[in-house]
Hints:
three-stranded antiparallel sheet; two-stranded antiparallel ribbon; 5 helices; elongated
Amino acid sequence: MGSFKLGGMTLKSLFSKPETIQYPVQERYKPEGLKGHIAIDAETCILCGICQKTCPTGAIEVDKAGEAWRIDRFRCVQCGACWRACPKESLTMENTYTPPATTKSVDSYEVHPKKPERKAPAAAEGSAAAPKKPAMSIEEQRAAMEAKIANMDPEKAAKVRANFEAKIAKQQQQ
């Protein structure tokens, strides 16, 4: 009985594709969802440090003052917590393995976070700036307020009316 199994396995392996590959020449098939290594898009990173806080092994270091992002690939366990937590989606999980190394090194990336653009101060009168809305009169404000509180609870509506009247009285005193 055992010889029939052995013969069947031998014949099967003669006519099937080999299980091994010639590694440097041929690349191994990468299954979908393979966790390879973390990659960063330095242009979109804002150096918030959330990835550093969520990394369970402490493989990521964010240096805001030095504008640098570092990862120790030997400590990274490819859990993906950092790229899921990134608010700007600067981190991605690549499906390629990191190349083998003989010495321990830390990959460092220079990151220059973009500063938020500030709006220019309002232009002087007579310029081509968009015209401002004219202020609403007290009667118009009261009508708008009444339209908003029409379906409101009567107690809440009374409080809103009282606050509105107090605000109007304060404006008239000034």
